[in-house]
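Render this sequence as a predicted structure.
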Amino acid sequence: MKPNTLTRRQFQLGFLALPCALATPAVHAHGDAHSKPAAPVVKEQKPWGIAAERSAATRTVTIRMTDDMKLSPNHLQVREGETLRLRAVNQGRVMHEIVLGTAAELQAHAEMMKKHPGMEHDEPYMAHVSPGKTGDIVWTFNRAGDFEFACLIAGHYETGMRGTIRVQPKA
């Protein structure tokens, strides 16, 4: 047999496996929080804080997302060192997301999303939420300062779908 040639049996097995592979739903990194398998949280220090385990959250803040491109509430007050569960509730009929970051980083990411609207990524400071679903971000705000959260889906950020987070220093 020549190298890189398939036997009839190998071809048949590959051909039979194709429908199974096509029928398997794709895993989207930007999928609902409920579809994510339980995995250890990647904890990388960011200027706006660090990811936390679900059990570390001391309070839950529900942020409603609507198709009129609003986030409610659109301003959060947090104490330095506080760990929040940000529960993103998509009350609209289109996909929305919440991404935490600095104003400059969110602006740059929004520009990238316009160029690559199908881009998939999954970071602990993001929740991509299908219509009628919820997603959670559990985050420790361990740095004082002013930060933002926004929906970076192409066109949403530009329409004003964003909010602010003020992390007050420890007393």
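Summary. The first helix runs from residue 8 to 23. The chain has two helices and ten strands.
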